[in-house]
Amino acid sequence: MAGIRCKMTTDDLDFPKTQESKLFALMWVNMFTHTTNEFNFMAEDAGIVGQITPNKDHIFISIDGYSDTIESYTQEFFSKLRTFDANEKVWNDLKEQQLVMFRNSKFKEPYQRLMNFFGSAISGENPDLDAQIKLLENFTFESFQQKRKNWLNNVNFEWLVEGHVLPDKAIEIGNQAASLVQKNQKKVNVAQVNQMAKVPEKTVYNYLEVNPVTQDKVNPNSAILSYFQYGEFNYHSSATLQVLMSLINEPAFD
């Protein structure tokens, strides 16, 4: 067995600096996943599973399967990232599905929405779900296709290949896959998104900001999240915080 993890970062379309670019990345992944359903279904029968996910500042790909077949699957998977067919009817269906998900999320209770809202707030994005809905409503198939031409032209690849794969073969798999995606064969310096929270001290977000639509108008629920941060990220402080949280979690829960 072998596992392949790939983190793709790019500054094409100003990703991930704008909400528009993140929305494009989300819909691009949705389109790719839908159009490769049959390909992945057949691969699963052969014991291979491939997944692609849009994250905050990168696209993440994970592939797991048998060592003797994972190489050919990986090449085909990465080739389809560039060549998959985009159908307007499929686009409209997926767009409507995503709009329904956005709209339905407005009716979740605060404790369910809190972390998403918090993530937007600390990264400086607009946590207003209505703004995201409006962006998607105005996002046309023609615009999507035009943006695709300028997407993944300059990419940084970070790889983790594990399992029964020799080091030279792992490097070969990564290089071949990258060559199928990136048009410009050069290393690009992609600006990393600042991971430090910039929330004004003692900021309090109003209940209505977190949950503008509530099903229970008489007795609405509420939620409180206190966030503390110190210093820049490093593994020692992260481990220390995890130990600390494990110690206070139970009494704090009670």
Give a concise summary.
This protein is an alpha+beta fold. The protein has 10 helices and 4 strands, in the order E-H-H-E-E-H-H-H-H-H-E-H-H-H.
Topology:
Elements: E1 2-9, H1 19-35, H2 37-45, E2 49-54, E3 59-65, H3 67-83, H4 88-105, H5 110-122, H6 129-137, H7 141-148, E4 156-163, H8 167-181, H9 207-210, H10 235-253
Antiparallel strand pairs: 1-3, 1-4, 2-3
Key features of this structure:
51% helix; alpha+beta; 10 helices; Cytochrome Bc1 Complex, Chain A, domain 1; globular; 254 residues
Beta-strand content = 5-15%
Total helices: the number is 10
**How many beta-strand segments?**
4
N-C termini distance: 43 Å
Task: Give the overall shape, derived from the CA principal axes.
Answer: globular
Domains counted in the coordinates: how many? Answer: 1
Topology-level CATH name? Cytochrome Bc1 Complex, Chain A, domain 1
CATH class: Alpha Beta
Q: How large is the radius of gyration? A: 21 Å
> Could you say what the CATH architecture is?
2-Layer Sandwich
**Biggest sheet record:** 4 strands, antiparallel
Mean pLDDT: 83
The CATH superfamily appears as: Metalloenzyme, LuxS/M16 peptidase-like
Which residues sit in consecutive blocks of at least 5 with pLDDT less than 50? 190-194
Instruction: Give the neighbour order of strands across the main sheet.
Output: 2-3-1-4
Mind explaining what this structure looks like?
With 254 residues, the chain is of the alpha+beta class. It has one domain (2-181): Cytochrome Bc1 Complex, Chain A, domain 1. It is 51% helix and 11% strand. It is built from 10 helices and 4 strands. It has helices spanning 19-35, 37-45, 67-83, 88-105, 110-122, 129-137, 141-148, 167-181, 207-210, 235-253, and strands at residues 2-9, 49-54, 59-65, 156-163. Strands 2-3-1-4 form a 4-stranded antiparallel beta sheet. Strand 2 (49-54) and strand 3 form a beta hairpin. Helix 3 (67-83) runs parallel beside helix 8 (167-181). It is globular and about 55 Å long.
